[in-house]
Amino acid sequence: MKDREFYRKVISLVIPMALQNLINVGVMAADVIMLGRVGETVLSGASLGGQVFFILNLILFGTTSGACVLIAQYWGKKDTVTIEKIIGIAMRIAVLVSLLFTVVTLIIPEPIMHIFSNEPEVIHEGAKYLRIIALTYPVVAVTMVYLNLIRSIERVVISTVIYASSLLLNVVANAILIFGLLGFPAMGIQGAAIGTLCARLLELAIMVFYALKINREVQVRFTYIWKQDPILRKDFFKYSGPVIMNEMIWGLGYSANAAIIGHLGSSAVAANSVVQVTRQLSMVVVFGIGNATAIMLGKAIGEKKEAVAEEYGKRFVRLALLFGLIGGGLILLARPYIIMGLHFTGQTADYMRTFLFVMSYYAVGQAVNTVIIVGILRSGGDTRFGLILDACSMWGGSILLGFLAAFVFHLPVKVVYLFLLSDELIKIPFSLMRYRSKKWLTNITR
To answer: Is the pLDDT of residue 389 over 90?
Structure first.
């Protein structure tokens, strides 16, 4: 009966979150497929321009992940007042950071693109994309923070509804504006950006309605956004600070990878754009499992059921390995169909074959590390370890090796890619040792 109850709870959390992840990746996939039809330069410009949002997204994810460490445990205590105060702190940070990203991106889009590419055509297309997509940053911040935080009180279905509506609008708007259907002019990369902006505004509208009219259990109170509890704010930054820094370091690492690849030519960029979407599609269930891990273990620890949390941790590690292997296998099975479906030929197709193979085993490592670091360790407030591990494995490992391979030893692009995606394999033994130490089994509520 305990096994049945565990898996019932896991399924009720993972399925909506996996669908949400799938939908979010679907938005990216729609852009990749449609812009890929326009041309490799346009696709490369949008992909590299999207690195700015990628960094912002990880800061927001770090903010909410850190907040969820506290919220899940306070949810175990049924302390909704404190949960509302935590939401206020996270919302304020997210809005201020997103506004900063918007202003900087609107002022210097070309210099930003120069970081990721040295091809004038790619820089020009990416700058056009950034001037529009930057307007979505504050909108995404509010929606994402709210939806991610209410996951910790086991409200997960609303996210699926919101993002499904957004995907539908985004695909339709993209098709019309990119290719000039229904009498509209063909706008190419700018059409993709406008379509995304429309979809993000729809997300915000539905979220505000839900927050004000439906979710009465935990509400967003403007009082807590601007006037904050100093003791709780100290706790928030104690546990959220390392997570935010962790996500920034990880995100900057991924952007560094993109910058290195961006200087290897548009064929490598186009191939990597498709491969990254493929990776995310293969990982939708794993990311849902990671979030479910943090919610269920955090709640159990908040209820002072450490033995239950420890048993759940063992089960989630096994689930991570299983679905990581499934995801990697799916990448290998889909490899020939992806290349044929996008009509890539020559060097781009050759790169994609190798990149997808590398991604197949990378996905397994990422699955295990995600569930342990983002799910298990953070559920008990053990947030500093992930920061240190990511900093060392990426900046002292994969990025350093990739940089040297590309610009010092001038090795082939495929070898460079192999080094750039070595970080998850480096992390596995260290994350497993930390999990087995049980230092994460800590109640951090007051």
So the answer is: yes
Is residue 243 within 8 Å of 69, Cβ to Cβ? yes
- The set of residues, in sequence order, having a beta carbon less than 8 Å from that of 177 and lying 6+ positions away, is 184, 187, 190, 191, 192, 194, 195
Higher-confidence residue of 36 and 261: namely 261
DSSP letter for each residue of 342-370 = TT--HHHHHHHHHHHHHHHHHHHHHHHHI
Does the CA dihedral 220-224-229-235 come out positive or negative? positive
The listed range with the strongest mean pLDDT (44-58, 97-111, 113-127) is: 97-111
Structural domain spans, the chain: 2-437
Report the alpha-carbon distance of residue 311 to residue 323 in Å, rounded: 19
How far is C-alpha 370 from the chain's CA centre? 11
CB neighbours of residue 25 within 10 Å: 22
The H-or-E segment that residue 265 falls in is none
Question: Which one is predicted more confidently, 30 or 94?
Answer: 94
* Residue 271 in this model has a pLDDT that exceeds 70: yes
The pLDDT, as a whole number, for residue 203 is 92
Q: How far apart are CA 205 and CA 161, in angstroms?
A: 12
1's tokens: 């009966």
CA-closest candidate to residue 282, choices 342, 156, 350, 367: 367
- Give the pLDDT of residue 343: 67
- Sign of the alpha-carbon dihedral angle for 362, 368, 374, 375: positive
Measured CA distances, 74 to 89, 132, 357, 402 (Å): 15, 39, 43, 43
221-244 tens-digit pLDDT: 878 887 778 888 888 888 878 888
Token pair belonging to 302? 């908040």
What integer is the mean pLDDT of 410-436?
93
**331-429-373 Cα angle (round to 5):** 75
Phi, psi of 444 (to 5 degrees): -110, 10
Q: Is 318 exposed, middle or buried (0-12, 13-18, 19+ CB in 10 A)?
A: exposed
Burial call 352-370: b when 16+ CB within 10 Å, e when fewer: bebbbbbbbbbbbbbbbbb
Q: Which amino acid is at 36?
A: G
How long is the chain?
A: 446
Helix (H, G, I), strand (E, B) or coil at 410: coil
pTM of the model: 0.76
